[in-house]
Amino acid sequence: MTAPVKISSFQFYNILFLSRVFAVVTYIANLRIDLSPSDKAASSVFTALYLFVTCIPTYLLLRKDSQSSIITRASCLSPVFAKILCIVYIADFLYYGTVTAARFELLISSVMFPETNMAFFMLVPLAVAGYGAYKGIEAQGRAAAFFLVLVLLSFAFVFLTILKDFDPLNFPPLFYEGAGGSAAIGAFTCARTGEVFSVALLLPFVKNHKNHHIFLWSAAVGVTVIAADTVISGVLGTFGNTQLFSMYSVSVLAEFGFVERMDAVITCIWMLCAVVKLSFTVFACSYLLLCLFGKKLRLLYISLTAAALFAGMLAVSSSVLNFASVVTSAFTIYGYVFTACVVPLAVLLGEKIKQNKNNKNIENKTLISDSAGDPQ
Amino acid sequence: MFEKLFGRWNNSKIHLSEPVSKEDTDLIPGGISKTVSENISALREMFGKSFDLIIKDTDVNGIKLSFAVLDGMYDNLLVSEAVVSPVLNTDYSVCDPDMLYEHIGKFRASECDSKEAVTMGEAVQFLLSGFLLLFIDGVPRCRVFSVQGYPKRSVEPPESEAQENGSHEGFVDMYKDNVTLIRRRLKSPYLRFESVTAGDTSNTSLCICYHAKRADPDIVNRVRDSLLNMKLDIVPGSGAVRPFLEAKGLSFFSSVGSTERPDVFAAKIAEGRVGVIVDGTPYALILPYLFIENFHSLDDYLNRPYYSLISRTLKLFCFFVAVFLPGIYVAVGTFHQEIFPADIIFEIASSLQETPFPLVLESIIIHFIYEIVREAGLRMPKSMGHAVSIVGALVIGDAAVTAGLISAPMLIVVAITAICSAVISPLHQPSSALRLIFIAVGGIMGLFGIMLGASLVVFNLCSVNSFGVPFTAPFSPFDRYAMRDSVFFAGWKKVGKRFIQIQNMKGSDKH
After folding, report:
1. Neighbour-count burial of A115, counting CB atoms closer than 10 A to its CB (0-12 exposed, 13-18 middle, 19+ buried)
2. How big is the CA angle at B158 (ends B152 and B163), to the nearest 5 degrees?
3. Which of A346, B12, B307, B318 could be a cystine partner for B420, CB 3.0 to 4.6 Å?
4. Which chain A residue has its CA at the smallest distance from B453's CA?
5. What is the dihedral of CA B238, B244, B249, B252, to 10 degrees?
């Protein structure tokens, strides 16, 4: 599988960063466990920690070979294994893409425009995402750089305007009811999106990849998550527990000069991140379908993925409870651990076993040839 | 039955797609005859009843000669003094036709440039370009003299790119004059001007211009191939050539630049770009071209750097206002009234109450009217300009608001938008189209739609590569050195230290 169009390492991790930021700004921590503001802020530290740890298997995989994708390496072990891996990854991407779209739909239908026809509203971002995917990862990488500037500026702007409402008294003693809740929420937040395994998958599209960039990326995501959660908790306090989208609630409270609400700004960030994330998901899925079937039918693959995401979104977002049951299912964490940690380690192990086997064969052959050449 | 139907359809398609005329001079059969009268008859047959074909027969030392030229295309004085008079005064010793032919070329008419045409097609091509043809009885070739002298526009200040500090010379319609204007500014032996002919019927001369040491040979070859493979019947202007040089795929923005200024053109060529000059138009094309260059002007380089930062930032701001302001106004007025404080929103709401149309429709109508007034201003005779200004200002500006057809805030938005779009004239076309799209999208989906539309435009913009160079460079992919001449100009002292060739920018094919 050749990948002629390449983007820089910065552009690649930028796309992943924006995808993660989307998960941060659509933070719904209280779907499963009710946490105090301090514990909620602490959960983001756990998230950063988990993210860092789950990057290690991918790092080990990249350290050995940072040029080939995990699918290529798996196909060297066994073509069937590679095909199964493709299917697993497609399922994962579709799951995360569906959750992304559903999360966005939920925001709009429950908070912004409750009386609108959501099917139409969601069809448009998916069409834009499909267009982005069709234009390729190069266009996505370049566009993400522009979006990053907008997102960071908007974040900074909203946070600076809301700082006057930041109250340290909103933070009760940490882990008053134990650290378990924070740890659990941290795990769910970490498992919310699947950027880590996309690193191993889409490497052939990245030029001059440096392996330590994955840790830089996880650190940048960690800092953003901690900053966002601290500000949200400090501003909203326990009121945040009653809010479905606490970041959105913060932006409603923010005001600057004659502009009395900032929710439009935050919604715009959401949209940019959602479009980047969805187009990346569609692109990754179309690449996996290409790996699976081998035929270059990009437009068909992109359309199929977008249609699948749309159908999934409609099913998941039919009610908040339905969405909560999908997002907070323990299988989310199992699935994440499997694709981000188990699969790379399995590939590494398989390569090690194969290498040992080859070495043994070579040794045996050398022994045989030595004994054959022995004058006895 | 279907076959018949499709057969008929196909036939009609083929018939329609055939060129109307095949006057390509390469297709004129046959070489030049030894007999002058035959050549003249062939010319007369070809030009039919055209009154402007002038043929003069004479003889020198008993050898028949014929001159042919097109009326109005030659310089009278040059013809009589540099060609006809010396030819007629040839020595009596030259009495062989071939000797006479060589003698005229070498000694008699040496004051003006002469060439040789071997086929009738070549001869006609020269004739159509204003050359004087000389047929000599007994010689199967034709001597052509460069005596062109047709009326042309003199060098004048460029109308579309007026500058405060720059030169007052603009390109003219004659491409050879334009070549001179560039040569005067780039006195380098590596400056190349390659001539290419395009247009099956018009046979228009195009000129590829580049600096041999700085331009990427791949880009030069690709430009040459694109021009040679163009399927055009006539080339009415550089705009007709532009689509053949633009990046593949649909885009709102053109990846080929255009300028009327020889100083700007020369500066771009010195940066390693390739230029295309089209005969008959004062607009030269430049490629590769970057999106940010739409916001650059010569004055930015000649003013103080801080002022160029202000000027470019203003232009960028104006572009965003021209594209997004009406759409955002419609979106906010329709869906997100909560963004504004109560006082402002009451003012807007009360003015909207008095108008019969919904905000989105009102916005589209007023923009259409604005575009109509603009078109009228461009196309109408200058003497009628005042009438249109009065109608536009009074009827639309005042009477429509007084009559309650259009709200005053909307008129203010349109006025701001119109002024802003005039600031960024190279982007007028995409900004006009995008503005209308964003009004519609803002009216249907609010800010949500505006952001999605903006994302789509950004994807579109980012997917464009102008001859291997990213259209969005140096921002994305980010190039630190090239940023010194982007939104701000770092000044000649800094920029002059390290020269960046455009093909070596980060993210381009060569990097």
Report:
1. exposed
2. 160
3. B318
4. A128
5. 0
pLDDT in 10s for each residue of chain B, 511 residues: 434 433 443 443 333 333 334 445 544 667 888 888 889 998 888 888 888 899 999 888 888 899 999 988 888 888 888 888 888 877 767 678 888 888 887 766 666 788 888 888 889 888 988 899 999 988 889 999 988 887 778 888 888 887 888 888 999 988 888 999 999 999 888 999 999 988 888 888 899 999 998 999 999 999 999 999 888 889 988 999 999 998 888 888 999 999 999 999 999 999 899 999 999 899 999 999 999 999 998 888 888 889 999 999 999 999 999 999 999 999 888 887 777 777 777 777 787 777 888 889 989 988 888 888 888 877 877 777 777 777 777 777 777 778 878 888 888 898 899 899 989 888 989 999 999 999 999 998 888 889 899 999 999 999 998 888 899 988 888 888 888 888 888 888 887 776 677 777 887 776 6
User: DSSP per residue over B189-215, as a string?
Assistant: TTEEEEEEEE-TTT-EEEEEEEETTTS
Is any Cβ of chain B less than 8 angstroms from the Cβ of A267? Answer: yes
Cα nearest neighbour of B336 on chain A: A264
CB contact under 8 A, A275 and B452: yes
**Domain range for A47:** 7-369
CA B429 to chain centre: 14
- Cα–Cα dist A229/B424, whole Å: 42
Inside any domain, residue A1: no
Residue type (1 letter), B263: D
Which is it for strands B142-145 and B114-117: parallel, antiparallel or unpaired? Answer: antiparallel
Is A62 inside any structural domain? yes
Two structure tokens written together for B435: 């503005």
* Partner residues linked to B489 by β-bridges: B485
B220 to chain A, minimum CA–CA distance in Å? 23
Residues of chain B in contact with residue A125, where contact means CB-CB under 8 angstroms, are 452
Per the structure block, which two tokens stand in for B396?
A: 């639309």
Shortest distance between the Cα of A277 and any Cα of chain B, in A, equals 12
| B chain contacts of residue A135, beta-carbon cutoff 8 Å | 459-460, 462-463
Cβ-based neighbour number of residue B59 at 10 Å: 12
Contact B448 A112 (CB under 8 A): yes
Integer Rg of chain B from CA: 30
DSSP state of B24: -
Nearest to B59, CA basis, from B31, B32, B93, B97:
B97
Place A8 in a pLDDT band, splitting at 50, 70 and 90. confident
DSSP label at B17? H
Contact B133, B142 (CB under 8 A): yes
- Does the model's ipTM exceed the 0.90 cut? no
A316 CA: distance to closest CA in chain B (Å): 22
Q: What is the CATH number of the domain that holds A240?
A: 1.10.4160.10
Cα B30 to Cα A32, B2, B65, B72, B199, distances in angstroms: 90, 45, 20, 28, 22
Contact B121, B28 (CB under 8 A): yes
Q: What angle do CA B60, B66, B68 make, to 5 degrees?
A: 140
Evaluate whether residue A319 is within a structural domain: yes
Taking the C-alpha atoms of residue B14 and residue B7, their distance in angstroms, rounded to an integer, is 11
**Cα dihedral sign, B98-B99-B100-B102:** positive
Residue ranges in B284-427 assigned as alpha helix (H): 298-302, 305-334, 342-353, 359-379, 385-390, 400-402, 408-423
Give me the number of domains chain A comprises. 1
Which residues numbered 100-129 in A keep a CB inside 8 Å of some CB on B? Answer: 108, 112-113, 121, 124-125, 128
Residue A347: how many CA atoms within 13 Å on its side-chain side? 31
**A2 domain residue, yes or no:** no
